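Sharing a chain and its predicted structure for anyone who wants a worked example. Both blocks are below, sequence first, tokens second.
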Amino acid sequence: MQARADIERILNLSPVMPVVVIEDAATAPELARAFVRGGIRVVEITLRTAAALRAMEAIAREVPDISVGAGTVLCAEDLRAAANAGATFAISPGSTSVLLEAGRHAPIPYLPAIATASELMAGLAHGYRCFKFFPAGPAGGIAMLKSFAGPFPQARFCPTGGITQETVKSYLDLPNVLCAGGSWLSPADALAAGDWQRIETLAAKAAASRT
């Protein structure tokens, strides 16, 4: 399944995937460049604002050194819109049978999210091997991921939600974790101020989390 291989390759680009809420699409390329200078090669732009799709378009056009993905994908139409905007992958905060099926035929790789063993089993039954584990902290965190490893040795994860720079290495040390998602790399005040140096510094710390 080519899409499975593609999403695994994307999740291996950087140990941490920044999860970003963009209010002003014009700032997106500079944000992406700051991530790249810090050693980050992948970013998730959440579909939570009117600027999100334009931000993806701008990053895809101006910053080819980073793989830009769409987050908060809730339906098949979101998948198509993300692909049309230049996103190279898509991520949802949960999963439904309709979305799991749509993701199998989407023009870009799709990463469904799970929080329970039953949701994980449903995703595996649809042919997926990689999953977002969300919300990681409230859903059981490291202990839950360790519990998944026994009955589901084939599954790999990108835990997201409640993770910080101080806790991320504990997640990355787990053999079934490919990368972790986090919003701490792009604080709202730094984005508003255009403090790209601060964001680059945070990205550099995150990029070194696995060393």
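Comments welcome. The chain has one domain: 2-207.
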